[in-house]
Amino acid sequence: MQRILGNLCDLEPLSDSIGLTIGNFDGVHLGHQFLIRQLQDRSMEFGARVAVLSFSPHPGRLFTPDSFQELMTLEDRLRALQERQVDFAVVQSFDDSFSKVPADQFLAEYMSFFSNLRIVLVGYDFRFGSHGQGDIQTIRDFFAGSQVVVDQVRPHTIGPEVVSSSLIRSKLRAGDVEAASRLLGREYELSGVVERGQALGRKLGFPTANLGAVATLIPASGVYMFTTRLRGATLQGVVNIGNRPTVQGKETTVEAHILDFSEDLYGEMLTLKLVARIRGEQKFANLDRLKEQIHKDIEFAKKNF
């Protein structure tokens, strides 16, 4: 897969015959995967290669910087697109100036990067341009009379729910990582570099790896089961997410205890695949009660992995 990052107006246009889809693709969830498969099938009819145009940073980080959290980093998004066998992952820089580009200008100037466009296939709710003024009809009108086919896919549903990044965020904020994982098509992941903490877990007999600077959405406070890959093996553990009310903590921490593992991980990147939530965060009367509950959490995880 070829990666192309920057401002499309400043880059040399692609000469390849292209089947294109556009969106944020945050999470590359089952709805995104359905769209990409449809585009791959349609592009084969035209002998075209598949390109995904997305944006970085996510527009949500520009418009609501204090509250918005992405489901995955740009690097993980690109890796996921490569796994879906996309030919071109094109990432347009998203800043204040670009956010003000009208829909018709976007089509006239930015889409010219795809100089041999054959098909544009977008999601059922796709909007673009300043204030989201552009939609599927805007694209159809722009390409009317050309060789470019414009179409959109139906919503992708699991049961009664339409799969979307916003729905996945709501599941995670409620602590329902199992539902979020079903919508993603894989376990939700948290990654961070292991930092030194207060070593409280070690003092209690349960050493933890403290993840620093987690860049993606952190689920609701509580204790979760997880798996991780370390030293060539898949290991299991429990992670506490929250502000540690028993010891008057103030900041949200992600503290992972890996079962039957005692090696030093300081400075290493650790990725946790969240399997299920065991319980919500609790405040205990003392450290002995906390230690007792941690032991119960670990025993629960061992029985249920």
Secondary-structure blueprint of this entry?
Elements lengths: L1 E5 L7 E9 L7 H17 L2 E8 L2 H5 L10 H10 L4 E6 L2 H4 L3 H8 L3 E9 L13 H8 L5 E4 L4 E2 L2 E2 L2 H9 L3 H8 L3 E8 L4 H5 L4 E4 L9 E9 L2 E10 L10 E6 L10 E11 L7 H18 L1
Parallel strand pairs: 1-4, 2-3, 2-5, 3-4, 5-6
Antiparallel strand pairs: 7-8, 9-10, 9-14, 10-13, 11-12, 11-14, 12-13
Helix pairs in contact: 7-8
Can you say what the CATH homologous superfamily of the largest domain is?
A: HUPs
Mean pLDDT: 93
Reported by name, the CATH topology of the largest domain is Rossmann fold
Work out the strand percent.
25-35%
CATH architecture of the largest domain: 3-Layer(aba) Sandwich
Which CATH first-tier class of the largest domain would you pick?
Alpha Beta
* Broad shape: elongated
Unreliable stretches (pLDDT < 50, length at least 5) are: none
Q: Kindly state the number of beta strands.
A: 14
The tally of domains stands at: 2
Summarize the helix and strand pattern as letters.
EEHEHHEHHEHEEEHHEHEEEEEH
Number of helical elements:
10
* Structural class computed from helices and strand pairing: alpha/beta
Terminal Cα separation, in Å? Answer: 35 Å
Portion of residues within helices: 25-40%
Strands of the widest sheet, in order across it, are: 1-4-3-2-5-6
